[in-house]
């Protein structure tokens, strides 16, 4: 790819996503949404730092902001990594079935394609943890943004998982497939609920 997907404008990204092209796809969209959820947490933190009312949390807020910047950058990198892993997989699927190397090449390409969305899930776990904390220590005027971040994080997590499962089902090595699926399921089982809890708490506060 000549241009980085993350250098597209919002209009360009949405247009490419809508077009009859392979990338960006669901994985890239999941990573981008995860990055946006992290950005909303950072926004809440940036509007809280330096306020006398929240002075007791200043050191923790600064630490969260530093970590959040790293996670947001990593998730944006995963937009690119997910796209880069798709082309070799597409090529591997096009190898004639009579080719003796097809199975090996397809297996490797599939394993490579699983790595980005699974890493997205690991990163988004932490996004949700930081949103949980920001809900408690962030400025009350930013609470709706924290809730929005949680809603996006839950959606990004579920979206990334589908990009794991679509590939694990075709792996020849079922032990590896089971291991990947168990990790993804474990993250889903705990963190989708945690993201929903943040959203529900924020919603309840706003509707009192």
Could you explain how this protein is built, in words?
This protein has helices at 10-18, 26-46, 58-93, 102-137, 143-168, 174-206. The protein has 208 residues and is mainly alpha-helical. It has one domain (24-206): Four Helix Bundle (Hemerythrin (Met), subunit A) (Up-down Bundle). The mean pLDDT is 95. Keywords: Coiled coil.
What brief labels describe this structure?
single chain, 208 residues, Four Helix Bundle (Hemerythrin (Met), subunit A)
Q: What is the average per-residue confidence, as pLDDT, rounded to a whole number?
A: 95
**Pattern of helices and strands:** HHHHHH
Shape: elongated
Question: Helix share of residues?
Answer: over 70%
Characterize the main sheet: none
**How does CATH name the architecture?**
Up-down Bundle
Question: Considering the protein shown, what is the CATH homologous superfamily?
Answer: Formiminotetrahydrofolate cyclodeaminase monomer, up-and-down helical bundle
CA-to-CA gap between the ends? Answer: 50 Å
Rg on CA atoms, Å? 19 Å
In total, how many beta strands?
Answer: 0
- CATH topology (fold) name: Four Helix Bundle (Hemerythrin (Met), subunit A)
Instruction: Please write the CATH class name.
Output: Mainly Alpha
